[in-house]
Write a structure and sequence with these properties.
Length: 209
């Protein structure tokens, strides 16, 4: 055991028990959803938005516990490797600056940074949320899409390039991911895959392949 583990024993991301980043019981509930696509782009997830994974994401975002990124990123990293994707770089869904100030960090950015160093894929920043959007909770899919139209823009001086992996925490209807992908396309780039920790159980926009 490393000295660091003795001083700061790892805690399970799902249930909080000491001993491992994911205890055996919680790790057993992490089931990679079958391969799917969103707007014709591969969608890779570490699991479904239920049980210990949902609990860990809630703790990560709302407690908030930014250090949980190091616990949440590995299952997604394994799903990315399993999917055998060829990605030129990773980027992430931005928060509106006001929201990020409130939370103190961007959960998608932290995940993207962890995945970047674990997988050896460069991190490229450039997506900006140019418009604050009302909370998505309770909106229909069409309402979410209208809510997010034009919400993102690629603002980096360097163009996004092709085959970017776009990282976010949860995919609920896919409206956020497709709006961010549209902003990348407008800047002349393309998304090679959507990479999320969890997908909501009912995902109407997703065609399972
Ligand atoms: Zn556990």
């Amino acid at each position: 055991m490393r000295l660091l583990d003795l001083l700061f024993p790892p805690r399970c991301g799902g249930c909080g028990d000491y001993g491992a980043a994911w205890c055996l019981a919680c790790a057993g509930t992490l089931q990679t959803p079958s391969a799917s696509t969103l707007a014709g782009i591969p969608l890779v997830a570490a699991g479904r938005f239920v049980g210990p994974l949902q609990e860990a994401i809630h703790r990560y975002k709302y407690r908030p516990r930014p250090q949980l990124a190091s616990v949440l990123a590995p299952p997604l990293g394994r799903a990315i490797l399993t999917a055998g994707l060829s990605l030129s770089a990773l980027t992430f869904v931005p928060l509106h600056p006001r929201r990020q100030h409130e939370r103190g960090f961007n959960q998608a950015e932290r995940l993207a940074a962890e995945l970047s160093s674990a997988l050896g894929i460069p991190l490229r920043r450039g997506l900006t949320r140019v418009r604050a959007t009302p909370a998505q909770v309770g909106l229909s899919q069409a309402e979410r899409r209208a809510n997010l139209a034009g919400a993102f823009r690629w603002t980096a001086s360097v163009p996004p390039g092709d085959r970017l992996g776009l990282v976010d925490d949860v995919c609920t209807t896919g409206a956020t991911l497709t709006a961010a992908a549209a902003a990348v396309a407008e800047a002349g780039g393309s998304i090679g895959a959507f990479l999320v920790l969890a997908v909501a159980q009912t995902l109407p926009a997703v065609a399972v392949t």
